[in-house]
Amino acid sequence: MYLLIAMSDPSASMISKIATKNFCSDYLLGEGGFGCVFKGWIDQNTFAPTKPGSGIVVAIKRLKAESFQGHKEWLTEVIYLGQLRHENLVKLIGYCSESDNRLLVYEFMPKGSLENHLFRSVQPISWPTRVKIAIDVARGLSFLHGLDANVIYRDLKASNVLLDSNFNAKLSDFGLARDGPTGDNTHVSTRIVGTRGYAAPEYVATGHLTPKSDVYSFGVVLLELLSGRRALDEDRGGLAEQTLVEWADPFLRDSRRVLRIMDTRLGGQYSKKEAQAVAAVVLQCLHMDPKNRPSMVDVLTSLEQLHTSKDMPRTPPPAKLHHHHHHHNHHQGIKHTNPPRKTSITNSK
Questions:
Q1: What is the tens place of the pLDDT at every residue in 43-87?
Q2: Largest CA-CA distance found in the chain, in angstroms, rounded
Q3: Which is catalytic among the residues 155, 164, 263, 298?
Q4: Mind listing the domains of the chain with CATH numbers?
Q5: What Pfam families does UniProt report for this protein, alphabetically (predicted)?
Q6: Which residues define the annotated binding site?
């Protein structure tokens, strides 16, 4: 049995037990370097374990006992997700740390990860759903970068974007998140972790982290949504180590050629104008100089304009917007997970 501390009320009165029977392989959702993620069921009010199929369904991440780095990331996740509440961040329901047992309990996200849907699933995601997912992710990042939160997410990739039953997208896995720069500082200096293919070039080169590092990674995810190709794909042929960004760059720069990179699984079912507008946003996000990348709020504005006006200019000018948080309705109680593999740039292909 584990003691579960509920995020809603971390006082002793709200501590309940989570049964180890949840940890049988039938309910394994995935595993990675950090440990495993299981599906479990708990009572909505007492947080006590219930029979499979009753109560609310949750995802339980269980860390490997011996991993020090894992503990650091576990703590980071508890601190950030425990304090941050937003409809586009996966909800942390509770956590547990007893001797060697470290658990995180999240809302369960029934549709799994964006990575699964883009690259593994039989059923392709429609164009309007892709645009909506991009807007959700942009909204989550805009919230993190805002004055209230001031957080750099640092590990945006398709496997960290989780989808609820209505394809609402939420960011998961805050183990690598960092406080953003404060005062006169322009960046945070940190060891270089993250995922090759998604990490911003200046961050890989110097370890200097800014919110614009997340903007670059967002550009990569947006490019994956457009092209249906992985950020890093061993099968791309030609230059073995060519990233998706390098491959797509010449097409993105020419609006007449840009449609050649579109995901063939869309079967041509998308607005050409919208696709060109999204490609223009991708190009801005992937600018080599972080100062020339738009902020996430500007990116969000561009994508939302595209969503609202079907009759739009070819490349929407990024609107200059100051601090604004979006709080749209979104269903409570829809839930997470498909665990991302943690890869560090140095040791992964």
A1: 877 777 777 778 888 888 887 776 666 778 888 888 888 888 999
A2: 63
A3: 155
A4: 2-107 (3.30.200.20), 114-308 (1.10.510.10)
A5: PK_Tyr_Ser-Thr
A6: 61, 160, 173
Residues tagged in the binding site annotation for ATP: 61
Q: Which residues contribute to the annotated binding site for Mg(2+)?
A: 160, 173
| SS3 assignment, position 293 | coil
In this structure, are residues 344 and 33 in contact, taking their beta carbons and an 8 Å threshold? no
Clarify whether 100 is annotated catalytic.
no
What are the residues facing 302 on neighbouring strands?
none
Are 114 and 158 in contact, with CB atoms under 8 Å apart?
Answer: yes
**62: nearest Cα among 113, 116, 2:** 2
pTM of the shown model:
0.80
User: How confident is the model over 84-125, as pLDDT tens digits?
Assistant: 899 999 998 888 877 667 788 889 999 999 999 999 888 899
Classify residue 97 as exposed, middle or buried by CB count within 10 Å of its CB (0-12, 13-18, 19+).
middle
Of 303, 299, 345, the C-alpha closest to 198 is 345
Structure tokens that stand for 283 in this block: 């190009």
